[in-house]
Inverse folding.
């Protein structure tokens, strides 16, 4: 899934793939940011992050941005990968409010096999609570 | 600390780099970050694997005066994997 190098460097710039675009649109749909980012998504450039193949993406904001520019998470989702392992997705913006990262955290750290069908993507809303997510409403 | 589940921060150098990328940028020592998270997590283990809704547990800790948010998954009855440690 990932073209990032194993030495801590980002991969080459590329467009979002169709499955990534669908997942991100679905995550944004549950937020107030959907309209703001819709026009950007089709043309935005991303780089694979060196996460061991889990599929994390860094959005290109016109210039290199360090981790210190992280702003906040705007959407969270989860699903079960084809190998049965749980996967967490966290979409974030930088301090200026621009798309920053799609962080993919697979429970065992193994490479992502595939993104799910949208029906199998669970949008997580925690209502500010820590711990496990609340039961699906 | 739990006797049942060991807490790890990635299981290879790439995963560890990914987990600590924000705290490294903030200049926080990895041992301090790991210690704070282990102290926060340990008393609440064991956790079920797979997790409810396939989603990780989220927790907050403070290290060097900086509030951090972490995500952690129970991988098995023996292992909890921490990743995605960000500034809260």
């Amino acid at each position: 899934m990932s073209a990032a190098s194993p030495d801590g460097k980002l991969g080459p710039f590329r467009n979002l793939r169709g499955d990534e675009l669908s997942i991100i649109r679905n995550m944004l749909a549950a937020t107030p940011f959907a309209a703001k980012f819709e026009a950007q998504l089709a043309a935005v450039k991303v780089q694979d992050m060196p996460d061991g193949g889990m599929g994390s993406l860094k959005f290109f904001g016109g210039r290199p941005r360090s981790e210190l520019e992280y702003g906040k998470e705007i959407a969270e989702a989860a699903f079960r990968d084809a190998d049965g392992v749980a996967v967490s997705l966290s979409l974030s913006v930088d301090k200026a409010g621009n798309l920053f990262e799609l962080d993919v955290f697979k429970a065992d750290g193994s490479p992502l096999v595939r993104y799910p069908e949208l029906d199998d993507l669970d949008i997580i809303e925690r209502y500010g609570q820590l711990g496990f997510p609340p039961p699906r409403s | 600390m739990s006797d049942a589940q060991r807490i790890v921060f990635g299981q290879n150098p790439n995963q560890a780099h990914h987990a600590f990328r924000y705290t490294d940028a903030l200049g926080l020592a990895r041992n301090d970050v790991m210690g704070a998270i282990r102290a926060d997590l340990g008393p609440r283990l064991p956790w079920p694997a797979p997790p409810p809704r396939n989603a990780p547990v989220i927790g907050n800790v403070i290290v060097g005066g900086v509030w951090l948010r972490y995500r952690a998954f129970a991988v098995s009855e023996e292992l909890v994997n921490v990743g995605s440690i960000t500034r809260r």
In short: Residues 14-124 of chain A form one domain. The first strand of chain A starts at residue 14 and ends at 15.
